[in-house]
Amino acid sequence: MTVNKNILDEIIQGCKAGKSRSQEMLYSMFAGKMLGICARYATDRLEAEDMMQVAFVRMFEKINDYRGEGSFEGWLKRIMVTTSIGFYRKKLRMLPVVASDEAEDNVVGWEMADSRLKVQELLTIIQKLSPGYRIVFNMYAIEGYTHKEIAKELSISEGTSKSQLARARGLLKEQVLRMEDIYNERSTK
Amino acid sequence: MKDQPNKLDQLIKNSFEDFELEPEASSWVQIEEKLDKNANNKKVVYFYKYAAAASILLLLVAGFYFVNNQKSKSELAKSETKIEKNRTEKTKNDLNFIDKKDSIELLKNDLDRLKVRSNSEIKSNTGLNTIATKNSKNIKSTKSHLRNNSDKTNPNLYEPKLIDKDKIQIANKNDSQKINEVIVVKNEKQKELITPKSDRTNEEFITDSSDNVIAKTTPTEPNNSLLGKKTSILNLADAANYVAGRIDKREEKFFSINKNAGQNEGYSYQLDLGLFKIKKSRN
Q1: Does the ipTM exceed 0.85?
Q2: Does the beta carbon of B115 lie under 8 angstroms from any beta carbon of chain A?
Q3: Residue A148 domain-assigned?
Q4: How far apart, in whole angstroms, are the C-alpha atoms of residue A78 and residue A55?
Q5: B186-223 pLDDT, tens per residue?
Q6: Residues in contact with B4: Cβ distance below 8 Å, sequence separation at least 6, in sequence order
Q7: How far apart are CA A169 and CA A97, in angstroms?
Q8: How far apart are CA B241 and CA B248, in angstroms?
Q9: pLDDT bucket at B26, cuts 50 / 70 / 90
Q10: Strand runs (DSSP E) across A59-134, as ranges?
Q11: Residue A12 domain-assigned (yes or no)
Q12: Among residues of chain A, what percentage have pLDDT more than 70?
């Protein structure tokens, strides 16, 4: 975290007092990063913006709940995630899918665990996944929720969460491999 | 195996580390607008809350005013009836004073002992006399008086009439009626004095064969107004009514439970809040 903690605390205090200036400062500090999170849960840029705005409004309204325990960024992230999920909660009709073993096997010879893919392209792939797969994969693989937490958050069973993740992985692997091929082809040319 | 981080997961996670997107320039303005809107909504909610509270208060005040108005009216009416009551009691006392010595005492003392079964038995004065002679000294004087004056039309005649005992018992059996007072009257004139004709509708007279009033029965009022009357508390409804009566001195209580008349036996609850009256029947 690049922001000085004391400055952040001061800004948070200002937000608790309802100061508009502090709110704007807090927003400008985190907006970019939070939009990056929301984008993974949304289908497009517009929806991501919407999610982020609603989440910020919600955060400002209950900022008094933040007692300074744990990092503020973590707290804010959680609000972003739950708000983003909220956009789909009503539409979400997740059924347990038959998990393919293929998805679970890690034999794929990727030697790029530390490497990075082109994020914008990866984001597009993720956004094309169906909401159920997208949300479960995001929560588990990126945000680090456990299946138990996901199940509770989405009102589904742990089994459903697991099978959704497996299916998401299967689809993503396919896409990522294709992306890799294109990438490699480009670089070799 | 599952504890080990999935390579794909790891790859994607790493890719998104420090990932940021530039928000729209208008984004902050939209957030501010939403915050303002929500604050206004809150204000609106508070306004409605206060408005609701104020209207309830207004209703209560209006109801209280209405109730007070009614209360003073009913108090006025009550005092009027009290005056009337006093007046009638006064005349009654006067009459009682006239009759007490000779007639009521006679009745009280001798009624039990005189076994008169029907009016026909006391038709003749001689029959009465024969029974009367057996009894106490009190009637001895009247007895001689009777012998001397056998003419009924004589206004000075003192002629004790005895109440038919069976009739009294019948009256007692009837719940709605009680013999309040037993007054022996000499003649029609006194009958008029005791009960002005306007009041007679509620009262019944026990008369003998010659249509002279020998006793007056007044039907007891149904136990509607509990105020100032001895009440017997038999069940919860009575208790509730008693409490209500203690608090509320008006004729129509703010709360009352009445037994339903008719075939549908049950209770009806009545809540009287001045402007509003709520009535519910339950079996």
Answers
A1: no
A2: no
A3: yes
A4: 10
A5: 455 555 555 554 544 455 556 566 666 666 555 554 54
A6: A106
A7: 13
A8: 10
A9: very high
A10: none
A11: yes
A12: 80
The CATH number linked to A159 is 1.10.10.10
> Per-residue b/e over A44-58, b at no fewer than 16 CB within 10 Å?
ebebbbbbbbbbbbb
Residue-wise pLDDT tens digits, A106-139: 444 455 544 566 888 889 999 999 999 999 999 9
Phi, psi of B204 (to 5 degrees): -120, 145
Q: Is residue A25 within 8 angstroms of chain B, CB to CB?
A: no
Residues of B in contact with A110 (CB under 8 A): 7-8, 11
Average pLDDT over residues B137-151: 47
* Parent domain of A34: 5-89
Residue B176 CB partners (closer than 8 Å, separation 6+): B219, B220, B222
> Strands B213-219, B204-207: parallel, antiparallel or unpaired by DSSP?
antiparallel
Flag whether residue B13 sits within 8 Å of chain A, measured between CB atoms.
yes
List the single residue in A20, A32, A142 with the smallest CB-CB distance to B12.
A142
Nearest C-alpha neighbor of A150 from the set A142, A141, A140: A140
Percent of chain B with pLDDT over 70: 39
- Is residue A96 domain-resident? no
Residue (of B60, B48, B152, B142) closest to B102 by Cα position: B142
CA-angle at A154, arms to A103 and A116, nearest 5° = 45
Angle between helices A20-41 and B27-99 (to 10 degrees): 110
Cα–Cα distance, A134 to A136 (Å, whole number): 6
